[in-house]
Predict the structure.
Amino acid sequence: MMMIRNILYIAVVLFAVSCNHNAAQEPEKETLSETTINNEEDNHNIPIIAERIDGPANIRDKPNGEIIFTLDDNTLVEVTQEKDGWFELLVYADIELKEFGMDTIKKGRSVIIDGESIGRIMKTFPVSTQRGQGKASVMLHGYTHKNNIKPETVIETRLLENLKNNNRNISSWLEFINLFVLDTNAVDFNGYKTFYNYENTLGDPSPGFRIVLLFENDKLVGFIHSRELELKSMKTYKLKWSYRISFFSDYPQAKQQSFVDYMNKWIQEVD
């Protein structure tokens, strides 16, 4: 079983931001806005769902490459794991149904999501399109500097912060679970409580798990993760499908191995 999930992207504009049509001359930001970060963290009722732009931001055809489009602040995007200071990025923008099948998008065109302009095409470049439910969209792919993604919207970043600042009781993780709108019951194993989200379609066209929190008796004992993490005092096992399972050192080794064996079998059965 491969899990396929349709992701609806909503462009949320906090302020009216005018795009700089000469964005090719705009340098990447070197520092993040402390005010923006604090405001986002203070409003615990706003779900994060996915990464958001700290912008306006330049999106390039490759790391340090030419600017091909721009995105406004707080736009929801898909990104892969950061590499050498850059994120690979994908956003789905609205197009007319009659434009389905277009192979390029033209310079000067606005990037539209849900009827709102959230960026601008700065250079004509190749694209792919998709359609369904009476609508069509264009897939805009590129790269952006790490400072153009709000770090508090990256689930792995928040996970590591929680590990550092919170205890492992489930009550200390409810805010994190709600903030990232994690689903329940990822796997059925020995009474574990599990909370999970999926990888995005940029990393896998048929996404599997990205993060799965594993609780036993309402205590966090470990987690499944699809992306590499720097973890101290934890044992990490590498599985198929690029999955990793990390357990805390105080969790019995026999129980760790039992779950690893279970997941390896589960992966083979659903592959």
In short: The radius of gyration is 20 Å. The chain is about 15% helix and 30% strand. The first strand starts at residue 51 and ends at 52.
